[in-house]
Amino acid sequence: MELCDLSAYKLSELIKKKEISPKEILNSVLKRIKEKEPEINAYITVTKDLAKFQAEEAEKRQRKGELLSDIDGIPIAIKDNICTKGIKTTCASNILANYVPPYNATVVDRLLKAGAIIIGKTNMDEFAMGSSTETSAFGPTQNPVKKGYVPGGSSGGSAAAVACGEAVFALGSDTGGSIRQPASFCGVVGMKPTYGRVSRYGLVAYASSLDQIGPICKSVEDCAMLLNHICGRDPKDTTSVSVSIPDFRSALNQDIKGIKVGLPREYFVEGLDSRIKDKFMEAVKFLQDAGAIVEEISLPHTKYAISTYYLIATAEASSNLARYDGVKYGIRQSSDGLIEMYKKTRMFGFGREVKRRIMLGTYVLSAGYYEAYYLKALKVRTLIREDFKKGFEKVDCMLTPVSPILPFRIGERIDDPLKMYLVDVYTVSLNLSGLPGISIPCGYIDDLPIGIQLISKAFNEQTIIKLAHFYQRSMEDKWNLNH
Amino acid sequence: MEFEPLICFEVHAELKTRSKLFCSCAVDPDADPNTHICPVCTAQPGTLPVLNKRAVEFTIMAGLAFNCRINRRAVFARKNYFYPDLPKGYQISQYEHPLCEDGYVEITGDDGKPYKVGIKRIHLEEDAGKLVHEKGYSLVDFNRAGVPLIEIVSDHTRNPIRSLKEAKEYLETVRQTLQYMGVSDCIMEKGQFRCDVNISLRKKGEKGFNERVEIKNMSSFRFILDALQYEIKRQSELLKAGKKIVQETRLFDERKKVTIPMRTKEDAPDYRYFPEPDLVELDISPEFVSLVKEKIPELPAEKVKRFVEKYGISRSDVLILTKQRETADYFERCAEYTSNYKRLSLWVINELFRLLKSDSIGIKECPVKPKAFSELINLLSDGQITEQIAKSILEEMFVSGKDPSEIIKEKDIKVIQEKDVLEQMIKEVIAENQEIVEKIKSGKREAINFLVGQVMKKTRGQANAKLVREMILQQLDYLSL
Predict the structure, then answer these.
(1) Quick one: fold of B419-480?
(2) What integer best gives the mean pLDDT of chain A?
(3) Could you report the per-residue pLDDT of A190-234, keeping only the tens digit for each?
(4) Alpha helices (H) in B78-185, listed in sequence order
(5) Interface probe, candidates A171, A212, A320, A374, chain B, greatest B C-beta count within 10 A
(6) Where along chain B do the CATH 1.10.10.410 domains lie?
(7) Please, what sign has the CA dihedral across residues A373, A375, A377, A383?
């Protein structure tokens, strides 16, 4: 095991004790990138020089005993839809292939202030539209756990990088499952915080009312640690919420006895791979044995979640992506007339899936269809939110699978959008209701990782951090014993 | 067949906030292109709008001034369309839940009675940038992108405007009120006050409504009225010929003074409005509204009434004095130092305005301080100086900014009122200009002006011309006897 395989939590301790230096960690990560990247393609841009400079600075601070925070000197990968000043931010799209933001996303500013070392920008589905990282204009990312398989998406690059030590931890974004599903596919931990918990300023919008930035890490501990640094109200994002911020690390080692865990009945119907269900039930059994009280609950509107999600997300996306018109930045396909320039730029600049969603969304918002689609979707969204509210009157958190299917082969689903969309069936409801969720590994089937998802009330990430950490620690002990 | 027009306006007024609606860039219409831009107002990927509170206050002020209901729940919406001056590909505006609804603007109707023109809504939105075409290129200036605008929509069915005169009265009242509150400068040449107008015709006495025509692209009140006039003629001719009016949008051609078709209803763009997810809904509390209400100054109508009562000046003069709040304020500051309000108002309206106009400056930049101006009025009223002298002193004050007493002292101006001195001079003038005297005697009375001029010359303008004239007449009458 090398330094790049350790958790951020562990590395943080070692840095503090001056047993290792930030430069050593960075070198280990860069070495791993050199070895693995040609095969994995987790990154769109590796910021080696910047990282080296930052590590140098971190090391000076370490020597003087002036570390900025518990993540000072730890290399982090940033999904390529989060703006980094002076560093190309492409959203894995041709239309932004040359785009260098003139400003930092709030989360990036916060990370830099805490001393984290930015190692690069990770691959993703174009504009975060996809569940496999196959829609990237810069080629798919390989699942590091099993060659030939997708890492999930859209934050597939971040998940893959963390899974194979190309980064210690990473930031992803989650609009319908884009952090949790790739975390599950790559066997790492991914968390979507409550909508409004983390500033979206600088996150290139896909669907504004659903997007949320969150951590992808090796452990729940790392997620808690990273979340501490990125969360909090931001005056630049008026949808970010001003609520008291707990120290998420302090939630880690609390007792889980008596915690009420709900299993939504509607999540275990057709479409769920029975092998995943079996694994899932093992996890349920384990938690029950550990003192959790498990009961079945109902989220009756679950069956509408996918369609509701794709109506709202595409509607917002069709508007959010209008700014890529070749006028101000990005790639322009020059032409004689204005309309021709628009057409050619967007025809060349956007990939198939992005175009499909723009068209869907434009249709959804069009006169005569708005009421039937968009407005109705908003109403169903309220019903889905109400379902959760009622559910949480009975339980402290909910437990579900992350994905109904195992990681699939690259190319297997890309030509069937509907089939691809169904992969998000367990994750989209949280975005629609703004709730926090965490995906943690719960074992392997055919050498492919699978995960479970824990959901809690809004702004109550502590509950799922506590339970997820307990589960992960217990499983690691168990798996280590088996080895 | 006689027709009456039904007119409603969509007025866009740029708000006079220091910064833009959704970012902290300065609002400055005179700045060099693209000097007031930032990641937010150039729609860099990932940026988000942050609402300018002052702009909301200004909108509510307008709403209250125009007697609207201030909605508790207000929502921003995206209006989607592509154009190079629109950086985000959508304009953040308001659609279903505007800040203000259901008000009225009181004007004097054509019948001389007060008439309450219905206001449908007032909403807040952002302006687009500007396209500049030069040397075969189209360039975009984003300085104006994101500048706050309010759109004031008058009603087509509830007390619509019924004539060109009412239209003019309405626009002037709206502009004046906004200027009074400091909500907008409303300078049309700078694009701070723009409007589209809807017009339909119906037979006099009828109750129903015909199809409306929207006219765009008018850059002055004059052009708006010209366009309306043309449209009234065009539509009534069509109706008289038994033809139907098509609902359409027309453009005004300023040179030919005609409206030309732009697009029909079928071609109207679908803006795909939907609630702006990047901004939270506004919850406008009654407390907030009452705080805003306190910031509304005395409005024109109230001011006119008070001026007439307090200062005893004619209504027509008051209307001139209160046309701009700055003038009214100047007058009131002057009025603190004199009690001759009538003369004060006349001198403001005639003399001061003339000087301001010739230097093309506003009253705000007027170098004559109110106290000094009133001092002059007092000197004149007390008969210490003549009108002639007062005028020349005022001119001097206007240049140097000095007090009248200072100028009188410096220039050693003495008012010549001793009649015997004047009489002596007049005798001399008459003696020196016998041929003129003969002319006058033979009936050419206007030749007397020459004599007056000669006397004034001798006194270096320091005499009262009216008095001199009277005295000359007396002398001549005496001689003729």
Answers:
(1) Arc Repressor Mutant, subunit A (1.10.10)
(2) 96
(3) 999 999 999 999 999 999 999 999 999 999 999 999 999 999 999
(4) 164-181
(5) A320
(6) 419-480
(7) negative
